[in-house]
Amino acid sequence: MDQEAGFVVKYVARFLSEQGSHQRAVALSRWDRERVERALGPDDPDALSARANLATTLAARGWYGDLDEAIELHRRFIADMERVFGPDPADAISSRASLADELAARGGPGDLDEAIDLHRRVVADMRRAFGPDHRQTITASNNLASELRDRLGPGDLDEAIDLHRWIVVGVERVFGPDHRDTLAACDNLANELGYRLGPGDLDEAIDLHRRVVVGGERVFGPDHRDTLSACDSLASELRDRLGPGDLDEAVGLNRRVVADRERVLGPDHLDTLWSRNNLAVALRDRLGSDDLDEAVDLCRRVAVDGGRVLGPDHLDTLLFRGNLALALVQRHGPGDVDEAVDLCGRVVADMGRVLGPDHLHTLAACDGLALALGERHGPGDAGEAVNLHRRVVAGSERAIGPDHPATLLASNNLAIALRARGELGDLAEAISLCGRVVAGLERALGPDHPFTLSVRDSLARALGARRGPGDLGEAVKLHKQIVADRKRVLGPYHPDTQESKSELARTRRELKKLGQ
Predict the structure, then answer these.
(1) Largest CA distance in the chain
(2) For the segment 444-465, what is each residue's pLDDT rounded down to a tens digit?
(3) Among 64, 70, 201, 214, which residue's beta carbon has the most beta carbons within 10 A?
């Protein structure tokens, strides 16, 4: 009877989590754990299972401290399972995968490395226990690939894409081209290609996602969650490619997803809220006459609805408020930047309280506040922006290490802020920072990655701003190479390529003036 009750509690808690009732789900799981341990003892299999269920429910809620508790519960569960039942029982393998997921989500010092090591072991164990084409093996392989993408060490992204290609081939061989697992594997491969952004990657990602959308409509129907998710991802990649008509198609896709999710899931479902947010991003990128106003209005609505549905301290609510601030900065209307600075300041404080001052989301919010201050140009804003960027760099170095691409990009943002402030010594520090960041990104991502090209552009601009002996000539050489590389990697009509051409022309004019 206890086992049957445990199954009921597990699935009711999962249902409550999926509906957004995370507090009720956690309370139910805590009650079940205490009930079973009191009745049967802490080493009974049902008690161990209740402990694992509580860990999973806590991880789904994601409040401050929940991941820490979930991680410790799963560590204890794995140790107890191995002590009671011997090495590597099947439930321990599954919980090791959950522990890896939670470590990756927490993102503390060493967490991602441990998650990757755990998932490597899980994938090997699952291949041996279940076979390479088993659904659990495929899920674990997908998660390993995602963590490699997030770590972005040398070769990590290439390894992640190779994993996904292997999964696509295997799943298509077993289930056929239209099976839901095949479509899911194509979706994951497309997402990784869209992240790498190497030559041809976006085109391949868009083709894959078009295949997933068409296949999803045929197999599941146009309103199915997976079909709409693929539409959302396709829109994101079209926004990144920015070819002729891409942004208009992206906005149209995002509008479709918003309308369909509101009709199918309801206006307050988390997927619906995020689809409205993504439509706002597409409108922000398109920059039509009314696009920025609509983007700001959408972001306001999402921030309010997120606070009402999820609570004011839920991570997604805080992210929605941060996105509203970014939309305000981009619109740059009367009072927009002041409001954005105020919003970002409150998001930083709330994330620091909920997640901790060194959590990566808190640091990202600090970065957003620094960018807003840099746009406001008030007394002391430039100095405060520089100090905030220094905090982000120091926090990232502690959290994920000095060589992680996110830390390197935070250093680039610091360099840009130093260049904008322009005090004595700032340009020299900016140039030195950019040089180190370029070298680090070339090691981590390769010389042609768009992030690497962006920092090389920052280095060229800093040299052009300093205008020391030989600086402008060196800046012209760098800009020429960046134009050529962006044409090759992103295409001749991409906005970054066009901006590099304009910057090259401007720097050449400055060099010519200096020569006269």
Answers:
(1) 92
(2) 888 999 899 999 999 999 999 9
(3) 70
> For 144-155, how does the pLDDT look when each residue is reduced to its tens digit (9 = 90+)?
999 998 887 888
Q: How far is it, in rounded angstroms, from Cα 255 to Cα 282?
A: 10
Give pLDDT, residue 2: 53
Q: Which two tokens stand for residue 29?
A: 């799981």
Name residue, tokens 């296949």: 215
Say how far apart CA 16 and CA 25 lie, in whole Å.
6
**Whole-angstrom Cα distance, residue 47 to residue 481?**
63
Burial of 424 (0-12, 13-18, 19+ CB in 10 A): exposed
**244 phi/psi in degrees, rounded to 5:** -60, 120
Calpha distance 408→401 (Å, rounded): 10
**Residue 243, pLDDT above cutoff 70:** yes
The answer to whether the beta carbons of residues 152 and 404 sit under 8 Å apart is yes
Give the separation between CA 366 and CA 479, rounded to whole angstroms.
30
Average pLDDT in the chain:
91
Helices (H) and strands (E) in the chain, counts: 23, 0
Distance CA 179, CA 148 (A): 26
Q: Can you spell out the DSSP letters for 370-430?
A: HHHHHHH--TTHHHHHHHHHHHHHHHHHHHH-TTSHHHHHHHHHHHHHHHHH--TTHHHHH
DSSP summary character for residue 88: S
The rounded distance, in Å, linking the Cα atoms of 293 and 328 is 9
Q: What are phi and psi of 358, to 5 degrees?
A: -105, 5
What letter does residue 145 receive in the DSSP assignment?
Answer: H
Q: Collapsing DSSP states into helix, strand and coil, what is residue 470?
A: coil
Residue 118 CB neighbour total at 10 angstroms: 23
Q: What are phi and psi of 119, to 5 degrees?
A: -70, -30
Got the DSSP string for 216-249? Answer: HHHHT-TTSHHHHHHHHHHHHHHHHH--TTHHHH
Q: Is residue 422 left, alpha or beta, with left meaning phi > 0 and alpha meaning psi from -120 to 50? A: left
State how far the Cα of 492 lies from the Cα of 241, in Å rounded to an integer: 11
3-state secondary structure at position 270: helix
Within 10 Å of residue 468's Cβ, how many Cβ atoms? 11
| pLDDT given for residue 1 in this prediction | 42
* Whole-number percent of the chain with pLDDT over 70: 98
